Amino acid sequence: MASKCPVDHSASQDSCPVDNKSKSTSTWTRLFSSSNSSNSPQNLSNERELSSIPKASDGNWVYPSEAQFFAAMARKNHNPQAADMKAIVPIHNAVNERAWLEVMKWEAGRGGEVCGGVKLVNFKGKPNDKSPRARWKMFLGYAAPFDRHDWVVDRCGLQIRYIIDFYTGRTDPVTNKVSFYLDTRPALDNWEAVKMRVQHFWGKWIGSSTTQS
Hints:
By secondary structure, the protein is of the alpha+beta class. Helix content is 35%, strand content 22%. The protein contains 5 helices and 6 strands. It has helices at 22-32, 66-75, 85-107, 132-139, 191-212, and strands spanning 50-54, 60-62, 119-125, 147-155, 158-171, 178-186.
C-alpha cells in the first residue's frame, strides 16, 4: 500500500500525489523556512488546489491546503512556520506537476490515450532509499537527491513504476528562489520498461549524432 502524503485526508477520498516522509518534509522546511516569521496558523488558507494528475478511479488528485500542510508537518514535529506555507505549498504543488509532466513525456505515443489516458495509481516516498542511478552519481561526486518518489501509473491495464529523484539546483541570487531538477525514468521492473529505456537511450543518441553531423 502506498504511503500517504503529510496531510490526513480521512474526511475525504482525495489525497495529494506526494509522500513527504520525515526527511523530505523537513527538507522542504529547511529550503523555504523563514527565521523570523510568525507561527500563528489561524490565517492559513483552507482552500485546496485540484491537480492535473488523474487518479486511477474518478477525478484528479487534490493537493493539501496551507492549513492542512502546516498541521501535518506539526504532527511530525518538523517545527513548521505558518508564514512559510504560502511559499512551500505552491512550490510543493508545482514540483509535482513537473513530475507528472516528466512522466507524460515518457508515456507519449505509447497508446494510453486509447483507454482514457494514463493515470496515477499510487505513490510512495523513499527519501532514505537511494536509487542505483543516484548512488552512481554520488560516487562520481554529484550531490545526493534530497528526496525520491516512486509513482505507479496505469496505461490501459499495464502498470509502470517510475522512479523520480529530486535534486536542488542553483539558487537565484536576485530572487533567492531555489530551482529543482527531477530525474524521472521507468523502473526496470518488466520488459515494457526495459524497452522504453532502450528506445529513450537510442533516441537521444541518434538525435545527438544527427546534430553533430
